[in-house]
Write a structure and sequence with these properties.
The protein has helices at about 125-130, 145-150, 175-180, 180-195, 210-220, 240-250, 270-280, 310-315, 355-360, 375, 385-390, 395-400, 410-415, 425-445; strands spanning about 25, 30-35, 45, 55, 60, 70, 75-85, 90-100, 160-165, 200-205, 225-230, 265, 285-290, 300-305, 325-330, 335, 350-355. With about 450 residues, it is of the alpha/beta class. It folds into 2 domains: about 1-25 and about 110-360, NADH-ubiquinone oxidoreductase 51kDa subunit (Rossmann fold, 3-Layer(aba) Sandwich), CATH 3.40.50.11540; about 375-445, no CATH class. The strands form 4 sheets. Strands 1-14-13-17-15-16 form a 6-stranded mixed β-sheet. Strands 2-8-7-4 form a 4-stranded antiparallel β-sheet, with no helix packed on it. It has a 4-stranded parallel β-sheet with strand order 11-10-9-12, with helices on both faces. It is globular, with a radius of gyration of 21 Å.
Amino acid sequence: MLKTFKKGGVHPPDNKISRNAAIETFPIPEIAYIYLNQHLGAPAKAVVQKGDKVKVGDLIAEASSFMSANIHSSVSGTVDKVDEWIDASGYKVPTVIIKVEGDEWNESIDRSPELISEIKLDKQQIVAKMKEMGIVGLGGAAFPTHVKYAIPEGKTAEYLIINGVECEPYLTADYRLMMEHSDEIIVGIQIQMKALGTNQAFIGIENNKPDAIELLTEKASHVEGITVVPLKMKYPQGAEKQLIKAITGREVPSGRLPIDVGCVVDNVGTSYATYYAVQKNQPLFERIVTVTGYPVRKPSNFLVRTGTPISKLLEAVNPDYDNCGKVISGGPMMGKALVSLDVAVTKGTSGVLMMTKGESQRHEEQNCIRCGKCLEACPMGLEPYLIASYSKLQNWDKVEEAHVMDCIECGSCQFTCPSFRPLVDYIRVGKRTVGQIIRSRNIKK
């Protein structure tokens, strides 16, 4: 019987229309816009200035705190300026803007196609290399990986769980990565296991990817300690806490982290990036991006350098702009609608989705009919209608009491709401406000 989490969840159409599109290397942009905040935590601090020459893989911004990540140039050329540029949030953020001149790589990067299976670094050196190479989680949150692997004293990582679920509709970047680069992923997982000091790793893959399950199972059969776990199709199966519950049966308590139940979760893309960082000395400056949607005439999966404008990606897929109502960074459930196509690709850009006018049209909000569908759909066992109502009224004490900080913003509640209430919008406002209140309260202590 296929494993899954039991509480809540929904079943949106998967729309994996780009699943058969092999990964293509995307052309290098003429100008790269490399954000300094493309990870969770504090923005990196620029170490270059206008007029500096850089090569692919050169450090251009260093982590400004423990919860931060190094940023490397994805192109070679001249730094035009260190300024601000609009990102997916709609705001201008600190950015290193580079005029591209050729494609000269840092000499320390091993560009040979040879697979390197022998892991020579010890666990401390691996974590240090993750930090040096700017590795972050590629599942969407872009959490600095070296922070996740700094296991607190008294905690033990019993299981490494690799997320190959890709439950977000439309997206196929992880699927193509598993199908085309399984060997590098397996070595990357072994590196991660060594860094954690664990001898057990599980790769969770939804059963709408049977060929990926078969391939990774065959590859893992030659490696001790790695097991592929087929999972039932159910959104949000790829969410960290739901994945842990499905695979191990363990439940992460409210306000706690996966390591509190002996688990560390990483995306397959992070395993792939870790392989290149440790075995090839290659920083994280490129990633697989799905460009898809029904207005897209050529759904694709591209290997893209960070800093590439999204407008360039769309030009390459022959889009039907007349039928496009919205362009989203990410997937339809958790992605962000873009206010400009000048936004650039970051480490966390998993996809660019063009939605039809019909798909993107918002219905008029109606009164809550107390049907309870949002309660049934919530994978965290919350009361979305109640949190949204309190947030709309700006009753922040009640929002906090309703455990808004446990919300994973998956959108399952809004997907099921027959009254078309923008539940996630209200909840996000409440979560952001309550988070600020909690931080202020902790500072005063």
